[in-house]
Automatic annotation (TrEMBL), chain A:
The lineage of its organism: Bacteria, Pseudomonadati, Pseudomonadota, Alphaproteobacteria, Parvularculales. InterPro entries: Fe-S_cluster_assembly_SufBD, SUF_FeS_clus_asmbl_SufB, SUF_FeS_clus_asmbl_SufBD_core, SUF_FeS_clus_asmbl_SufBD_sf, SufBD_N. Residues 177-238 form the SUF system FeS cluster assembly SufBD N-terminal domain. It comes from the Bacteria. Belongs to the iron-sulfur cluster assembly SufBD family. GO terms for biological process: iron-sulfur cluster assembly. Residues 247-489 form the SUF system FeS cluster assembly SufBD core domain. This is Fe-S cluster assembly protein SufB. It comes from Aquisalinus luteolus.
Automatic annotation (TrEMBL), chain B:
The keyword Amino-acid biosynthesis does not apply. This is ABC transporter ATP-binding protein. Keywords: ATP-binding, Nucleotide-binding. The keyword Magnesium does not apply. The gene is sufC. It comes from Aquisalinus luteolus. Residues 2-246 form the ABC transporter domain. Belongs to the ABC transporter superfamily. Ycf16 family. One of its GO terms (molecular function) is ATP binding. Gene3D superfamilies: P-loop containing nucleotide triphosphate hydrolases.
From TrEMBL, chain C:
Coiled coil: none annotated. The lineage of its organism: Bacteria, Pseudomonadati, Pseudomonadota, Alphaproteobacteria, Parvularculales. It comes from Aquisalinus luteolus. Residues 143-369 form the SUF system FeS cluster assembly SufBD core domain. Transmembrane segments: none annotated. GO terms for biological process: iron-sulfur cluster assembly. It comes from the Bacteria. Pfam families: SUFBD_core. This is Fe-S cluster assembly protein SufD. SUPFAM superfamilies: Stabilizer of iron transporter SufD.
Length: 518, 249, 403
């Protein structure tokens, strides 16, 4: 009996390999928009930094800040500790600024070049308010209310209102829902605009979570960041809609260096969604973003990412190098920061969304699904730094490796001397599909307070053949069975995603794993 | 013998007991009945001295001596025993070793001689039979893998071994079948004499068929709201706690 | 050489003591120096910082002392400050003692230095079933440094038990030891490491075990730390069906530091590793646990499990843990768990309600916590002696007023 089952699955693997190969050639978002762009001269020196700052009409303090970062960066070494391999990056062989030539500011959505709008449409991003509104169903429900266990990704569930700030290469092209947000007092605009319009806020918070000296990539970003998003939610305000930015890299050899800064003032709440896509190109493109979150007393920030940058072709050619620094600061008491990420793209990912739990009773969460296939490499995880009393954190990481890919969960839970009453629970599960890939778990746990209760669990396994067989005996085909089981494996994380993303994420899981049965 | 005067207990900044007074004379069995959340377990923890149960007013005395400044083990050595509502599993700790260490620690604190290994073994085997625990169970780590009923039997075994002067049974009946209830009755009735007291905390009347109380008190909203004879228990069984919940509110 | 590397007096003297030419170990040493927190594998155990001042070679004699662990009819070898000063006049049948050499280098340089600087690499070869334990007593005292290198070879089907006691006298000595275990097909070795030293001593004791098919390697460790102590074991499953058990406990008080590092490689299918470490930290004790399972592509049907649990008894104590999985095969069962926390207050209250004093209750819970790491030990006498050592440690904590 078991012999028969073996054979069935083994045959499936061969078919699977074929299917995976086919799938890899069809990166859905890999189209290139044909518009003229204006670029900074290739390469990186002090003039590049001045050029970017001037293009953005930045005040002197911002330029000084950038120049100081650039000075530091020149003295830094690229980190090598992550479990990823890639050819040396020639930082002089990139463009550090690219903007659509028609100019960066649009009076209204109608001024946006139709090619760009069409591009976003292809990406499935509703840019025009009307389009968004058409998609609104059951608005006013929170994602939690709208969702049942079975409903994750299910069709026909409620859609949320979403305000979109789209970053097309380096410039934010349009912002929707601006008026409604303004009414609530929420500031949601590109960081370039914010530097001009709200310098006092930007100056106060930028670099306060990720200092310019933080790490090689963050420092580089500080020097040359091109655009990004700024959100400020005033005291006591619950942001009336989900905010969303879609990042997209279009121009060849353009490094994209977004800078995102989100501040939730006392008692405020905001949920932010970030999505990323990039066209298919043979050369590797560099992406080094910095995201800073600041939650003041009783504030809550929920930050969700679906990352499906181009992962390169089946031989590992091309794809994005994604070196991101994301960090949240629970700066005051009872604040909460929650990171949720679905990582399916990029050739190389280096990313550790972290929480500094400074305020007493603050809460940090990290929910992650990472899927790597072909020759993708991902080294991702989180850091939970417990500084305040009674701070709690929760880490749920689900890694799925297929093809020739290599992925690592790397996480730190650190409890400082004076942080009494700390709780952490960490669970890292890895699933290997096929015998040419690798899945690794590298947790660091540092406890300096006896009242801490820290629990860490990790497992590595493959899809259960018994479960696969069971599903197939009930009539599911192999792909459906794999998809069902992988979804089950990821359920704890999928449930954390806002509705808008849950559907997309689940589709992504299916696409990324189609046919890859192990 | 046990006297509680105007006891106020605060847990996590919430006042649970709000002026509870109670006296159990030597030789008597008193029952405390009350709805869920009325503070029954808080009372048992407060008497035995659990940390975080802050006494803000009042006093608890045993034979005229205040217990409030004493550590839990000092209270135990004075003869207080609590049969826990939810007995713990303590992995890695051998059952026999634990009970013997407890017994000798109490004896030492009272200035008595330690019990020899042989005497202890004889006594525990005999009493294990009464409570219905096999030798094999005694050899396991403390309560590890025991059923709910077995854990309650282990509580009764310890009470029989430690021979306290005052026993508190906190919902010992929950989760027990008729045979086990009878066993609890046997152990308590065997120990009843003119100098020992018992406080039986329960939600239901059924244990009181086996352990006949001299007095029954109704605890609601952190106070004793009614006291009387065993008839109160029967009345509660018929009519429930509604009238007390309302009157306490 | 490392950029901006300032050699310490210790490093300079050690480099100078290496052969002038032809020493690859010396070349590496003068290139990288001693491991420090800048090295990923030593980030929590900075040997370089612990050994700054120059050290002379230790004198080759020590004062006699009773063994830390009394064994029944041991085959005893005594290393006094690195010098083999006592060995049995005759060895039982099936055991031979010889000198070895020509070993390939380890990735870590300290064991390479030990091999090169030791007076010899002593090789104990065992065939058949040995019914008496081999006791390797490593005694250290004084303020010098010394190195030892011992290899234990078990021939096909052989069975033996080896106890290494790392026993320390007074003063700030540095002991650097390397052990090599080679288990042929079906061989079975029970290894026990016992470590106790003073607050000033620095000790690194490294072991590599190569397991052929169906070999059984069982290791238990009980350590009490020192100024800085690292006990490292690397295991390589090289034949199918091999099995390794790596268990250990550490109890640290004062300012003692103990690092238990293990690295287990599965290169062939069907091998099993079980690992359990328990740590108890009082005062300013600092425990480090690093565990790694590496499962190569061909090592299907690997079953590897690791757990580390630490109990913090003091607010000034620290535990750092890195349980790591590196998995390249898909049909495997690998898991690790790590916990850190204080004693269960509910259990403490329960026990005190029964009459135990707080110290008694704590001691009993700590004993119970640690005992699990020694359940695999087959010899009840040895187990009882380890328990007694733990009891002694616990008594000292109570006497010292540690709560």
């Amino acid at each position: 009996m078991s012999q028969v089952k073996e054979t069935v699955v083994k045959e499936g693997i061969d078919q699977a390999t074929v299917d995976v190969t086919r799938e890899l050639e069809t990166y859905k978002h890999g189209f290139i928009t044909d518009i003229e762009t204006e670029k900074a001269p290739k390469g990186l020196n002090e003039d590049t930094v001045r050029f970017i700052s001037a293009k953005k009409e930045e005040p002197q303090w911002m330029l000084d800040w950038r120049l100081e970062a650039f000075k530091r960066w020149q003295e830094m070494e690229e980190p090598t500790w992550a479990h990823v391999k890639y050819p040396a990056i020639d930082y002089q062989d990139h463009y550090y600024y690219a903007a659509p030539k028609t100019g960066s500011k649009y009076e209204s959505i109608d001024d946006v070049p139709p090619e760009i709008l069409a591009d976003f449409e292809k990406l499935g991003i509703p840019l025009k308010e009307a389009e968004v509104l058409l998609g609104v169903e059951g608005a006013g429900q929170t994602p939690g209310e709208a969702r049942t266990d079975a409903g994750v990704g299910g069709e026909g569930t409620a859609k949320q209102k979403v305000a979109v700030d789209a970053v097309f290469d380096s410039v934010s092209v349009a912002t929707t829902f601006k008026k409604e947000l303004e009414k609530a007092g929420v500031i949601f605009m590109s960081i370039s605009e914010a530097i001009r319009e709200h310098p006092e806020l930007v100056k106060k918070y930028i670099g306060s979570v990720v200092p310019t000296s933080d790490n090689f990539f963050a420092t580089l970003n500080s020097a040359v960041f091109s655009d990004g998003t700024f959100v400020y939610v005033p005291p006591g305000v619950r942001c009336p809609m989900e905010l969303s930015t879609y990042f997209r890299i279009n121009e060849a050899n353009t490094g994209q260096f977004e800078r995102t800064l989100i501040v939730a003032d006392k008692g405020a709440y905001v949920s932010y969604l970030e999505g990323c896509t990039a066209p298919m190109r043979d050369e590797n493109q560099l992406h080094a973003a910095v995201v800073e979150l600041v939650a003041l007393e009783d504030a809550e920030i929920k930050y969700s990412t679906v990352q499906n940058w181009y992962p390169g072709d089946k031989d590992g050619k091309g794809g994005i190098y994604n070196f991101v620094t994301k960090r949240g600061d629970c700066r005051e008491a009872r604040s909460k920061i929650s990171w949720t990420q679905v990582e399916t793209g990029s050739a190389v990912t280096w990313k550790y969304p972290s929480c500094i739990l400074r305020g007493d009773n603050s809460v940090g969460e990290f929910y992650s699904i990472a899927i790597t296939n072909n020759h993708q490499q991902a080294d991702t995880g989180t850091k939970m730094i417990h500084l305040g009393k009674n701070t709690t954190s929760r880490i749920i990481s689900k890694g799925i490796a297929a093809g020739f890919s290599d992925q690592t969960y790397r996480g730190l839970v650190s409890v400082h001397r004076k942080a009494s009453g700390v709780r952490n629970f960490t669970q890292c599960d890895s699933l290997l599909i096929g015998d040419q890939c690798g899945a690794h778990t590298v947790p660091y746990i540092e406890a300096k307070n006896s009242s801490a209760v820290l629990e860490h669990e990790a497992t590595t396994s493959r899809l259960s053949e018994d479960q696969l067989f069971y599903c197939m005996q009930r009539g599911l085909n192999e792909e459906e069975a794999v998809s069902l089981l992988v979804n089950g494996f990821c359920k704890d994380v999928l449930q954390q995603l806002p509705m808008e993303f849950a559907v997309e994420a689940q589709k992504l899981l299916e696409v990324s794993l189609e046919g890859s049965v192990g | 013998m046990l006297k509680i005067e105007n006891l106020h207990i605060t847990v996590d900044e919430t006042e649970i007991l709000k002026g509870l007074s109670l006296e159990v004379p030597a030789g008597e069995v008193h029952a405390i009945m009350g709805p869920n959340g009325s503070g029954k377990s808080t009372l048992s923890y407060a008497i035995t001295g659990r940390e975080d149960y802050e006494v803000t007013h009042g006093d608890i005395t045993l034979d005229g001596e205040s217990l409030l400044e004493m550590d839990p083990n000092e209270r135990a050595a004075k003869g207080l025993f609590l049969s826990f509502q939810h007995p713990l599993e303590i992995p890695g700790v051998a059952t026999m070793n634990f009970i013997r260490t407890a017994l000798n620690a109490q004896r030492k604190a009272r200035g008595e001689n330690e019990v020899t290994a042989a005497d202890f073994l004889r006594a525990i085997r005999e009493k294990a039979k009464i409570v219905g625990l096999s030798d094999e169970k005694l050899k396991r780590p403390f309560n590890v893998g025991f059923s709910g009923g077995e854990k309650k039997r282990m509580e009764m075994l310890q009470m029989a071994m430690l021979e306290p002067r005052f026993g508190i049974l906190d919902e010992t009946d929950s989760g027990l079948d008729i045979d086990a209830l009878k066993m609890v009755g046997e152990v308590v009735n065997e120990m009843r004499d003119g100098s020992r007291g018992f406080l039986v905390i329960t939600h239901y009347q059924r244990l009181l068929d086996y352990v006949k109380p001299d007095r029954v008190h109704v605890l609601a909203g952190g106070r004793i709201v009614e006291s009387g004879g065993p008839e109160i228990a029967r009345e509660l069984e018929e009519h429930g706690y509604d009238k007390y919940i309302q009157s306490a509110a | 050489m490392r950029p901006n590397h300032q050699f310490t007096e210790f490093e300079k003297a050690l480099i100078a003591s290496m052969p002038a030419e032809g020493s690859e170990v010396g070349t590496i040493l003068s290139d990288t120096g001693l491991p420090s927190r800048r090295d990923e594998r030593w980030k929590w155990t900075d040997v370089r910082a612990a050994l700054r001042e120059e050290k002379q070679p230790s004198v080759q004699s020590v004062s006699s002392r009773a063994p830390l662990l009394a064994l029944d009819q041991p085959i005893e070898f005594l290393f006094a400050n690195g010098h083999l000063s006592q060995a049995p006049a005759s060895l039982p049948d099936g055991v031979t003692l010889s000198r070895g050499g020509g070993y390939p280098l380890f990735r870590e340089n300290l064991p390479n230095i030990a091999t090169e600087k030791a007076e010899a690499t002593y090789v104990l070869t065992v065939s058949g079933k040995l019914d008496r334990p081999i006791h390797l007593r490593f005694l250290s005292e004084g303020s010098g440094m010394h190195h030892t290198s011992v290899q234990v070879v078990l021939e096909e089907g052989a069975e033996a038990s080896v106890v290494e006691s790392l026993e320390g006298g007074e003063d700030a000595w540095f002991a650097n030891g390397v052990m090599r275990f080679t288990l042929a097909k079906g061989a079975s070795l029970e290894r026990l490491i016992l470590q106790q030293a003073n607050d000033d001593a620095v000790q690194v004791h490294f072991a590599m075990a190569n397991l052929a098919a169906e070999a059984n390697f069982t290791q238990g460790t009980l350590g009490f730390g020192s100024k800085l102590c690292r006990l490292e074991t690397q295991v390589l499953h090289e034949g199918e069906g091999a099995r390794a058990v790596l268990n250990g406990a550490y109890l640290l008080s004062g300012r003692r530091h103990l690092d238990n590092t293990t690295d287990v490689g599965h290169t062939v299918p069907g091998c099993v590793t079980e690992e359990l470490y328990k740590g108890v930290l009082a005062d300013k004790g600092r425990g480090v646990f690093q565990g790694r399972f590496y499962v190569a592509k061909d090592a299907q049907q690997t079953d590897a499990r690791m757990a580390h649990n630490a109990l913090l008894l003091s607010d000034e104590a620290e535990v750092d843990a890195k349980p790591e999985l590196m998995i390249y095969a898909d049909d495997v069962q690998c898991a690790h768990g790590n916990t850190a926390g204080a004693l269960d207050t509910e259990a403490l209250f329960y026990m005190r309600q029964r009459g135990l004093t707080e110290a008694q209750a704590r001691a009993m819970l700590v004993q119970a916590f640690v005992a699990e790491a020694f359940e695999h030990i087959s010899d009840d006498d040895v187990k009882a002696r380890l328990t007694a050592l733990i009891e002694t440690w616990l008594d000292q904590q109570t006497d010292g007023g540690t709560r």
